[in-house]
């Protein structure tokens, strides 16, 4: 039997090592390629959907939002955010619903709303003369010019919502006025300046719209 020489054995061993290395290298490249392909598929199927969701929608697809101010006989008067095309009933629901004193015969719940619109829900038996610069939701306006002194609210008996319709009077000041008159009566319109936060400038803005009679 012929045996390989030592030199031949070394050559054969080197060849075997080379073949094994080539096989291993090819397997490694296949695994890397497979992993890349798998990751690409995962991104295509899953991640790209999340990326698309994060992209801003086309202006035509974006839902238009309007802001409406509602006051009067609702439980949560103030600003409400609605979808474009909403109606008075939607604003009422966003404001907590109608109070039992609301005069349904003087409002149109089906009226469509526009951005920056003001809605006033009157009280049953409420005199139109005390509604100053507010929009009756049946589409008619009860607003008056700022120089008209015939339509005034009695600061001793009016509601907080009516006070909030005065120029520059928000919910905080309206609450202070109500709290003040609970312990004492306004004997003159100038007495309203005794309420914290109402100075000469603010009084000048509201004096033509208030009375104590």
UniProtKB/TrEMBL annotation:
GO molecular function: DNA binding
Pfam families assigned: HHH_3, SLBB
Membrane is among the record's keywords: yes
Keyword Endoplasmic reticulum set for record: no
Keywords: Membrane, Transmembrane, Transmembrane helix
Transmembrane feature ranges: 12-28
GO biological process, any: protein secretion by the type II secretion system
One cellular-component annotation, GO: type II protein secretion system complex
Annotated ranges, domain Helix-hairpin-helix DNA-binding motif class: 161-180, 190-209
InterPro entries noted in UniProt: Competence_ComEA_HhH (IPR004509), Endo/Exo/Phosphatase_dom_1 (IPR051675), Hlx-hairpin-Hlx_DNA-bd_motif (IPR003583), RuvA_2-like (IPR010994), Soluble_ligand-bd (IPR019554)
The protein's name: Competence protein ComEA
Organism: Sporanaerobacter acetigenes DSM 13106
High-level lineage: Bacteria, Bacillati, Bacillota, Tissierellia, Tissierellales
């Amino acid at each position: 039997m012929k045996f390989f020489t030592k030199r031949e054995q070394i050559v054969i061993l080197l060849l075997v090592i080379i073949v094994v290395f080539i096989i291993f290298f090819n397997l490694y490249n296949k695994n890397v390629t497979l992993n890349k392909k798998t990751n690409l598929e995962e991104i295509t199927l899953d991640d790209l959907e999340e990326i698309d969701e994060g992209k801003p929608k086309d202006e035509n697809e974006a839902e238009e939002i309007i802001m409406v101010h509602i006051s009067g006989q609702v439980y949560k008067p103030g600003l409400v955010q609605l979808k474009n095309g909403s109606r008075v009933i939607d604003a009422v629901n966003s404001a907590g619903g109608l109070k039992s004193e609301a005069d349904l015969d003087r409002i149109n719940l089906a009226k469509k709303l526009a951005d920056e619109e003001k809605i006033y829900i009157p009280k049953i038996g409420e005199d139109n003369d005390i509604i100053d610069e507010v929009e009756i939701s049946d589409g008619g306006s009860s607003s008056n010019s700022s120089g008209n002194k015939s339509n005034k609210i009695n600061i001793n008996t009016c509601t907080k919502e009516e006070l909030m319709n005065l120029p520059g009077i928000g919910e905080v000041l309206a609450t202070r006025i109500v709290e003040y008159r609970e312990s004492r009566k306004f004997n003159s319109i100038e007495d309203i300046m005794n309420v914290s936060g109402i100075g000469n400038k603010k009084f000048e803005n509201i004096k033509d719209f208030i009375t104590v009679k």
